[in-house]
Amino acid sequence: MNKVTWLHKNLFSTWYNTLLTIICLFFLFWIVKGCFIWVFYQAQWQVIQLNLHLFLVGRFPQSLYWRIWIVLGIITTLSVINWSLFTKKPNIIKRRLSSFITPWIAPIWLLSFAINIWLIGGGFGLQSVSTNLWNGLLLTLLMAIVSIILSFPIGVILALGRTSNLFIIRWFSILYIEIVRGLPLIGILFIAQVMLPLFLPTELRLDRLIRGIAGLVLFSAAYMAENVRGGLQSIPRGQTEAAKALGLNTPLVVILIILPQALRAVIPVIVGQFIGLFKDTSLLSLVGLVELTGMARSILAQPQFLGRYAEVYIFIGLIYWLFCYSMSLASRKLEKQLGN
């Protein structure tokens, strides 16, 4: 079926289909024209241009921007290496490199994370930068990455605990998952930021960033546990029995056979959870942490940019979409590489 035949069959087959098509095309043209005029002639993009540094790093000292560039270089280099190793068709050289580098990827990422935190926060020979100055996209990415890294293993442990034969472990996991899933995230963040300091002695006061991360991790881990449990239930029981017949004990069966297959089966759901967690960091602005959304509010309070909501929120919306789409794209590439 060529394009002309398809158009005639689906859009102009009858007089009322033709009329509806013309009306829809006119309405679409009117919307596109309005958006074009607003974007290029009416919008005041100076609010983005003049405050770009605030959107990206907030009030982080400008004299220390070199640290941010080093952190960005480290993350970009490691990301490119991972992407090239696991998403492209392997050849002989790449297989050898992959077999050599793969066991070291997790330790290298952990080491780089420690180095990045040291560069951002200072200390140990570098000028310290208060966490009150960690704002904007910098804080959003930091909170999201740390929360994702911590919530994933906790969620896996809770999922395994919920399927355990031990009564105490199983019911503790069930109670935790069901209680946390029944609470709104903003409530958990409020407890972590406002209520928790009231019960701790002054010398044990935790930094507000740590309290915010704790709230995100505790909330996300409960949902992650249910996602992983769904993958565990999809594995046939016969695989467990066959592995035990070969002499493997229960921990080895779970770690080497069941868990890898379960995680591979729920990659889209897990990545969806990560995307949701990344967007949930916007709620931190409601409890006093000036991440990307909170910084947008601060910029909109500037007298010369009052009322420029559309420009500001379109810009931060594009930033959120860019990172979320990148995670979704990486998920599809990983699924394809693993043969899902």
Distance between the termini: 32 Å
Helix content: over 70%
Shape label: globular
Radius of gyration, CA atoms, in whole angstroms = 25 Å
- Which secondary-structure class do the elements indicate? mainly alpha
The major sheet is characterized as: none
Oligomer: single chain
Proportion of strand residues: under 5%
Spans with pLDDT under 50 lasting ≥5 residues? none
What's the helix and strand layout?
Elements: H1 3-10, H2 15-42, H3 46-49, H4 52-57, H5 65-86, H6 92-121, H7 136-162, H8 167-181, H9 185-199, H10 208-233, H11 237-245, H12 250-265, H13 267-280, H14 292-300, H15 309-338
Helix pairs in contact: 5-6, 7-8, 7-10, 7-13, 7-14, 8-10, 9-10, 10-12, 10-13, 11-12, 13-15, 14-15
Keywords, separated by commas or semicolons:
mainly alpha; 340 residues; globular; single chain; 15 helices
Describe the structure.
The chain has 340 residues and is mainly alpha-helical. 76% of the residues lie in helices and 0% in strands. It has helices spanning 3-10, 15-42, 46-49, 52-57, 65-86, 92-121, 136-162, 167-181, 185-199, 208-233, 237-245, 250-265, 267-280, 292-300, 309-338. The longest helix is centred in the N-terminal third of the chain and has 30 residues, at 92-121. The protein starts with a helix and ends with a helix. The mean pLDDT is 86.
Summarize the structure.
It is built from 15 helices and no strands. The protein is mostly helical.
